[in-house]
């Protein structure tokens, strides 16, 4: 396990679309371990693989209820609307209001290769949207409706 170097806004890699994971091998498992370690060290509630320079569709999230590891996450549906202040480890020193769905349902693969479905509201819905955006090269500042700083 290792803490990985974060990529920051302005790095063109953060703007690229990440590739699907086709096989959950040891490399993917150690990537997930490193992502968790990096997220906890940096005090984040989520981290996507491109944030440490890896263009694969892998996300880790912890909104306070334990770690969720998501491989190839995709939305099944989104519903409602909420506006909250977001920040991002790749955009240090910035935060602002972003409009997100109130509730989302996401399908993903766990580290054993099982298909799972997660439903999130509130902060979990925001985290899922924010991290999946990273996999498509989108940062929260692209969607910011009001800057805090
Ligand atoms: Ni982020």
Summarize the structure.
By secondary structure, this protein is an alpha+beta fold.
Descriptive overview:
By secondary structure, the chain is α+β, with helices and mostly antiparallel strands. The protein has one domain (12-147): Alpha-Beta Complex (Peptide Deformylase), CATH 3.90.45.10. The protein is built from 2 helices and 8 strands, in the order H-E-E-E-E-E-E-E-H-E. Strands 1-2-3-6-7 form a 5-stranded antiparallel β-sheet, sandwiched between helices. A 3-stranded antiparallel β-sheet has the order 4-5-8. Strand 2 (58-61) and strand 3 (68-79) form a beta hairpin. The longest helix is centred in the first third of the chain and has 16 residues, at 26-41. The protein is globular. The termini are far apart. Nickel (II) ion is lined by residues 88-90, 130, 134.
Essential attributes:
binds nickel (II) ion; 149 residues; Peptide Deformylase
Q: Helix count, per DSSP?
A: 2
SSE arrangement, N to C: HEEEEEEEHE
Tell me the strand order in the biggest sheet: 1-2-3-6-7
CATH C-level name = Alpha Beta
How would you describe the shape?
globular
Do you know the CATH architecture?
Alpha-Beta Complex
Question: What portion of residues is helical?
Answer: 10-25%
Major sheet, described briefly?
5 strands, antiparallel
CA radius of gyration is 14 Å
% residues in beta strands: 25-35%
Give the total of domains: 1
Write the layout of secondary structure elements.
Elements: H1 26-41, E1 46-48, E2 58-61, E3 68-79, E4 82-86, E5 96-100, E6 103-109, E7 115-121, H2 122-135, E8 144-147
Antiparallel strand pairs: 1-2, 2-3, 3-6, 4-5, 5-8, 6-7
Bound molecules: nickel (II) ion.
Nickel (II) ion is lined by residues 88-90, 130, 134.
